[in-house]
Amino acid sequence: MTRHLLFLAVSATLGITAHSNLSMKLLICILFFLCFLFYWSGGKWKVLILHIVIMGIFISSASITEIRNKSIYDGSESHFLVTFTSQPKLDGNLLKGFVTSEQGEQLLLRYTIASEQEKEGLNQHLRTGISCPIQGSLQVPEPHRNENSFDYQQYLSRQNTHWIVKADSISFSKCKMSKASLVVSIRNFRMKGISYIKKHFPKESSGFVTALIFGDQSEINEEYLTNYQRLGLVHLLAISGLHVSLLTGMLFYLGIRIGITRERMVVLILVFLPMYTLLSGGSPSVMRSCLMAMLFFILMLFKKRLSASVTIGVIYLILLFLQPNMLYNIGFQLSFAVTFSIIMSSGIFLHYPQKIMQLLIISTSCQLAALPILLFHFYEVSLLGVLLNVLYVPLYSVILLPFSLITVVLNFLVPALGHPLITLLNVTFTLCNRAADLASDFPLASVSFGKPGFIMLLFLLVSILGLFVNWETSFRASKTWWGMFILLLLLQFNIQKLSPFGEVQIIDIGQGDSILITLPFNAGNYLIDTGGQITFPLEEWKKKRKTHNTAEDTIIPLLKSKGIHHLDKLILTHADADHMGSAKKLIENFKVEEVIIGSWGEEQYRDKDFIPVARDNGIRIKMVKKGDSWSVGEAKFYVLNPHKKEENTNEASVVLYAEIGGLSWVFTGDMGEPGEMELIDAFPQLRADILKVGHHGSKTSSSIPFLEQIHPKAAIISVGKENRYGHPHGQVLESMKANKIMVFRTDEDGAVIYKYTKKGGTFRKILP
């Protein structure tokens, strides 16, 4: 029965995947799977037909979901009456949250708060279920603009959300509370509970208590949350099966102790669990845990039993049939994978009666099951996490979760008893967080493997399943599968060293420059500029939990996704914030061998925040000037500028001429027309196939004489979408057109990538 359900779950998954992403690779996988089923069933055609039917049913379910997932708006609308259907979030001076329009369509609301008084008013009066008239504009959510980056548009679409409504004004005086339903009442109770914890608990622990009780991680310090993610411990802060089991077990025990019959207690828990699903945020892991618990208690009511493996299989099929898009939710994937691994490893416990060993096996099993998912989405895993989970899982599930719940209840009912417990709880969380902070700096805390390709992912899944099946017999029987798994991981870790492909990638980081050059077989990894933003001091109430940083949010995830473990050179063309503003974050969080800056520009960098960080990390800072060069294999790099001290920092930009992938390139930084004239005078024979346009396409650069001498086949403009400077200038675009130069621009094309081998290369852009 267990294997039948497992195979049915695979068929359902393949059906939904085939609907959204049908490819030759997937068709081959489906064919192999059907052949395996035919062999496994002893040649029974009925089994084969059943699974084909299941695939068809789930393809149909996904098709119907897609047909229904349409917008009624065309984007021209400006007046709306919206109802807040989920907990609104206040982050600095930004209000955001999901709302439902009068026509019943879900929208994502964004509103910039005008004053601190308005924010205080929103904190007091904004509730789930309140309806407000708003005026604003509809915006299409951004798709992914860089390779392997998060596709926000697709993410929202899978939640039936097609528009972001950017509110210019919200008539809060005209807001009305709709008739309170049970669902709205529960959600508002959740908001009040979160506000209560935030108000009465110290900052160090309030976010963790909120996460454990209500499933809301938004108040956790960003640094602590990052540490838990790096160490593979963040699952402890999500409502899971452990939470639900503990809570229902406590309720059941207390009910029996005060004299309620078992049957009535089961009914009460069945009523409570759907309410708790809403109370704890309704995430996929919560839904899975509560549905499994409900099925268990329903069967108890009728004196029936199902194995845990059958239960999880049934719940998986039901959820996917009702909500096919849930398959793409990372929480859904991790929740079912980890739960399934615990069930799969239950037979292994028989070989290891010691409690510590059993904890270690559970931790190892969970990490193995989560590994392909984590690599696919986040490109890195924590090898140290296996050991840390042995310590942190019991600590959180057995001590901190019940302790947090008891403390909140006691503090509400009897504050005099609650205050000492809050202090003790805060000390415990502080110690846990500091330990995690120390552990996050260990070498194996987080290891980047890169995003695995389709075939590698398939082999990893097969090796992990084979490992589980054979480990149950004995550890010795699983040695071959362990060897295969470790070999695959080593191969994936060194994937960049084995790749014959090189790339030049103009990263889309908005209004700024950042260019990644990777040579074949990991012979060299160079980053020209980091992008960055000019920041201004903000009033305390306007400060957001996390500010955008191009290094942390765009560049480092891209490097990790490609299996790059270090940068040989970080080349900073000049000291403007939109070219080097994120250098500090990059150096702090990624290994850099050498930083290159232009000669005669020491004064520009003297007070920059990355300089002391680079020195503390032992990173060499090298100054280059006209005439310097280096080469690696067939790739050659020549420095054309600077050649003297310049008052204008743009004219002091490091300008590189490179021969990469059979093409010649000129990277100009922000050099303007005066520098261009000096450049063509100094190098009258200078030609290039590809020109990285200077100063984001400003009219102060890309002069006609310069274009005529360089005579590029294509030009690439790194520029922010709808930037306030009006870049690229129409005059520059006209000059390009007059000289028959093909133009790529990141505001319209997203990242622009040239991928090559010894035989040649091709250009592609991320946006269609």
Q: Which CATH architecture of the domain at 498-537 and 547-765 is right?
A: 4-Layer Sandwich
> Any idea what the shape is?
globular
Please mark out the parts with pLDDT under 50 across 5 or more consecutive residues, or reply none.
Answer: none
- Please, what is the average pLDDT? 90
CATH superfamily annotation of the domain at 498-537 and 547-765: Ribonuclease Z/Hydroxyacylglutathione hydrolase-like
Biggest beta-sheet profile: 8 strands, mixed
CATH third-level topology of the domain at 498-537 and 547-765 = Metallo-beta-lactamase, Chain A
Quaternary structure of the protein: single chain
Distance between the termini: 46 Å
Can you walk me through this structure?
- The chain is an alpha/beta fold and 768 residues long.
- Among the domains are: 2-68; 79-179, Beta Barrel (OB fold (Dihydrolipoamide Acetyltransferase, E2P)); 498-537 and 547-765, 4-Layer Sandwich (Metallo-beta-lactamase, Chain A), CATH 3.60.15.
- The chain contains 28 helices and 24 strands.
- Strand 3 and strand 4 (106-112) form a beta hairpin.
- Helix 20 (550-561) packs across helix 22 (583-589).
- The radius of gyration is 29 Å and the shape is globular.
- The two termini are 46 Å apart.
- The model has no long low-confidence stretch (mean pLDDT 90).
